[in-house]
Amino acid sequence: MNKAHYRQQVVNFLEKAHIRLTEEEKARIEIASFGLPDYPRSGLQLLTYCNSERYCAKELVLFPHQVCPEHRHPPFGSSMGKQETFRCRWGEVYLFVDDDSLTLNKNESGEPICPKPEGDEQWYQCDRFILLKPGEQYTIKPNTLHWFKAGSMGAVVSEFSSESRDEFDIFTDPRVRRLEGVE
Questions:
Q1: Measuring CA to CA, which residue among 73, 45, 67 is closest to residue 164?
Q2: Under which EC number(s) is this enzyme classified (predicted)?
Q3: Each residue of 66-87: pLDDT tens digit?
């Protein structure tokens, strides 16, 4: 499958969330593989509406069970790093954050509620999560480790944040190359 196929899938997911795009926006959908060999298991599809020194707005689309690798948004220049709010629009997303107030990822028998990507568990340190359903949101503080995984239907998440500088993101997995995508 190629970039055009994945872009059309993204448009279909956004339509399920009642989000309509212009043709120009459809052409700007980013298909991020993070340079990892297992896309679409690991990856993210996104559309940036606006990104300035003051604020940023994006739509994030995750295919069923797709994982965005663990990372943080460190300080840069005079910024303390990106603060972002994720608001679930459609589907469900497990948002793992370095936040002791969240739910530990274990059920009564000690098994994970939401498994980490098999074979890559070492690159996922955050063990506490919040399950976001449509209409629910969570704000991630700057320079805070986090990763997220879609539920069985996939997910559409709106991101509202301070300035986004993806090139400065620090990933737990050293193989990740944030700005690499699918051709």
A1: 73
A2: 5.3.1.15
A3: 999 999 999 999 999 999 999 9
